[in-house]
């Protein structure tokens, strides 16, 4: 994403490339409904203090806000005429055999773990990276509307990171849980970086890597 | 651009997002999330009020949508806007 940010800073990002970027980010954000839906089913009543459930609800709401913002911006700029068109558009379509799909399914699979472990994995892994690159975009983009969009998302993403920190500190007690959270965080971080790389290549029109790609998640 | 006929009173709005959902549903897309830190919902110039009053029909928070010019509260919707043909306008 650094390459995309550099292109943005130099004013080389075309309208079509911005559309590709927003559409791909929108695709991920809307898939978070699917992820969090699965996670919410795994929260048992009275398992955690009500604040944990509230903060999780808040995070779901925030992701929804971001998804709405991306879609709003695309529709406002008439890159797609309706939301339905955007769902069908090649830029906004969700593909299962993609890195976006791999990341989403990786997150969805975390529904099998206790809430504190999976929230630590997401919020102390990919969310930290998201915070950094959105900040970089907010500072790089020349387009005022897009700059405002990315900088307005910063407070929520930061609050998600802080929530991950709170949950890890308060509810991860056993060493086995701590180790598990660490491994899952590394895995989700790796898959998120895969997603970002795919997105950057897609935005800039670079050729995709062929064949099987293996990257260490620094867990062994 | 014309000024939208309706605006949201953020003192009363509960941010339930029903206006956003229905406006998006009928492809007018005039209700947007603002790119400010608070992410208020706003109504932009794509609003075709009084031809469409769908957001007023679904808004649960009294007084949260007002007429821009007169400042008159439109929630709950007054009788003159409560008509079937205005509820679901035909969009070209």
Task: Describe the model.
The complex is a heterodimer of chains A (220) and B (92). Chain A has 220 residues and is mainly alpha-helical. Chain A has one domain: Heme Oxygenase, Chain A (Up-down Bundle). Chain A has ten helices and no strands. Chain A has helices at residues 2-9, 15-41, 50-76, 83-88, 99-109, 115-123, 126-140, 144-152, 154-171, 175-204. The two termini of chain A are 27 Å apart. The model of chain B has no long low-confidence stretch (mean pLDDT 86). Helix content of chain B is 18%, strand content 13%. Chain B has three helices and four strands. The longest helix of chain B has 8 residues, at 18-25. Chain B has one domain (6-87). The two termini of chain B are 20 Å apart. With 92 residues, chain B is an alpha+beta fold. In chain B, the strands form two sheets. Chain B has a two-stranded antiparallel ribbon. A two-stranded antiparallel ribbon of chain B has the order 2-3. Chain B has helices spanning 18-25, 54-58, 84-87, and strands spanning 6-8, 31-33, 41-43, 65-67. The A-B interface holds A 65, 68-69, 72, 75-76, 81-84, 145, 148-149, 151-152, 155 and B 20, 24, 27, 29, 32-37, 39, 44.
List keywords for this structure.
heterodimer; A: 220 residues; mainly alpha; Heme Oxygenase, Chain A; globular; B: 92 residues; alpha+beta; two-stranded antiparallel sheet; 3 helices; 4 strands; 18% helix
